Amino acid sequence: MKEVIEPLNRDTLRYALRINGTVRAYFSAFLREQGYLEIPPVIYSTATDPLNHPVFDTSFEYYGEKYSITKSMIFHKQIAVQYLNKIFAFSPNVRLETSDRASTGRHLSEFTQIDIECLKASRDDMISLAEDMIVGVIAEVKEKNKTELNSLKRTLNVPKKPFVRIRYEDAFREYGKQFEDLLSAKMTAPFWIIDIPIKEREFYDREDPNNEGFLLDMDLIYPEGFGEASSGGEREFEIEKILKRVKLKGQSTDQFKWFIEAASGGLLPSAGFGIGIERLVRYLCGFPRIDMVTPFPKIPGKLSI
Ligand code: ASP
Ligand code: MG
Hints:
The protein has helices at 10-33, 74-84, 123-144, 146-151, 168-175, 179-186, 239-248, 257-264, 277-285, and strands at 37-38, 44-45, 59-62, 65-69, 86-94, 110-119, 164-167, 191-194, 217-222, 227-234, 270-276. It is of the alpha+beta class and 305 residues long. It is globular and about 55 Å long. Aspartic acid (ASP) is lined by residues 49, 72, 74, 115, 231-232, 272-274.
């Protein structure tokens, strides 16, 4: 029989959920103040994020059309931002990860990310916004959740802007394939990995016109070994480039029909990112495992209710 997830420690779960409440309230208020409009999440669609790593399929047929459960709202963000200018969503994502990810401490096959997109923004703009959000939310949790942090014996330091930026190639050269984990364990403040090679990411991250083969994207990594916090970047918006990139990935355009049709009408440039809420709460609580932050964790490969 498959292993069933044990009921969680009720006190630590309650603390985590209070911190989760602070995070959501802070991000909502902060983004609204910056002129961002909240849009409702998309739960299923004919096009979703293909992701750059294998997950099990969640597609189904409905009245003769093929749909997928949302892996990320990337395409919806890029389209909605064309006429809404600055948007965010608390977006539930289902990524049926393989069971080898059960022990990483940071993978849930169902999670929520706060997904942000801004029209005509650059990567630098989005890095600055994400830094403000991380600095702000850590300060807010320190202020609003003193009791919870004390009970969890968690000391948090508010990081300073600008965060360190490390080029992917430099990190790889110095630390090898495991650079992300090694750097995360070594660093004492959140940091960026930037300029990710084209083959490592999906077609929607924009190739740097001044640095062929590298993307204008960024990953935010937590310190103390907590690993990845966020991915994002500038978007490929010109239809010829989008089609070229889909081809480069060996993908068929059918899978993205709705998005490609919309993009064929012409898109304005945009940039954005997504921050995983459960990963952030796990980091703030200092928990060894991500399943400790939610009452119904979906752990890859394990029977989940
Ligand atoms: N689509 C990315 C992800 O879900 C986030 C982003 O680029 O905005 O990982
Ligand atoms: Mg990522």
